[in-house]
Amino acid sequence: xxxxxxxxxxxxxxxxxxxxxxxxxxxxxxxxxxxxxxxxxxxxxxxxxxxxxxxxxxxxxxxxxxxxxxxxxxxxxxxxxxxxxxxxxxxxxxxxxxxxxxxxxxxxxxxxxxxxxxxxxxxxxxxxxxxxxxxxxxxxxxxxxxxxxxxxxxxxxxxxxxxxxxxxxxxxxxxxxxxxxxxxxxxxxxxxxxxxxxxxxxxxxxxxxxxxxxxxxxxxxx
Length: 222
Hints:
By secondary structure, this protein is α/β, with parallel strands linked by helices. It contains six helices and ten strands, in the order H-E-E-E-H-H-E-H-E-E-H-E-E-H-E-E. Helix 3 (70-86) packs across helix 4 (103-109).
């Protein structure tokens, strides 16, 4: 006798790690189970399919994040331009989840900007999380959050009044064909936000404003 997919049996007990709404079975892709949250519209990987912390770190180490690579610089350039146009070099910034190659920090420091780097795997200086910042860059990081609500509460608390969080992550919307969506193929990408989820974050975390520049760049104002 064949058994039902494991998530069908226990979906009533699982809640969205962002908004705490009950989730529902969504898809199985690349041998991993995914859930959908009717509350905030997010899609998330089943926690039992997460890679281990050691595997996660090894995966990041395979990224070719050379700060001198023009392609890498071009990828983050829109976010860097937003910071350069919205802040002076006298203001303080944090590159949150800076990874193995903090290219955003490199490009801003080239313009004499004061930026610190923090990464739980590669630059885990937790004393920096006791400071306040005029701006935070969080580029291709939020989709890795196992506990997105806690992480966004942390980010909100790190900002000075009027400070800005510059976020880059690809948003999921119902028109996207999840089966062929390449963004879910990285096994360390565990949480995919909808536009509605971002608006929920802005409201619940007490941000004064949110701006969607496109389908992958969002700016929150404290």
